[in-house]
Predict the structure.
Amino acid sequence: MSDIHFSNFRLEEDTDYFLYIGELKNYGLNIYLREALSRIFKRPYDFITICPDVFEQYNYDNLMVINPLVTSGVCFPGNGFSCRIPAPDFMTAVSENEAVKTLVKQLRRRQGQLYLYMYESLP
């Protein structure tokens, strides 16, 4: 069973990508990293976000939402409950997800290398 709740990423032909794995609240910082990598490597870079945040709608590009609580029936968008999962559980779900593994292999074949940027908020 897939833990993917939402996915809208598309790979552009002349663009390299890095993966941001973490909460959506840090999404905006990836724009700075995208610009830095584009300048360093003198080619277009963009990012694909893999996050656990469950919402009714998403206004983000290149997003994959993975949250095992959604597929387990514990939570679903609009129920008024938090679907936050501990970071280790999220990271395990990402690491074991076949779609993520396929994406990583595809990007490594295209680019030769793949940068991962991970974020975890701690109290």
Summary: The two ends are 32 Å apart (CA to CA). The chain has a mean pLDDT of 89.
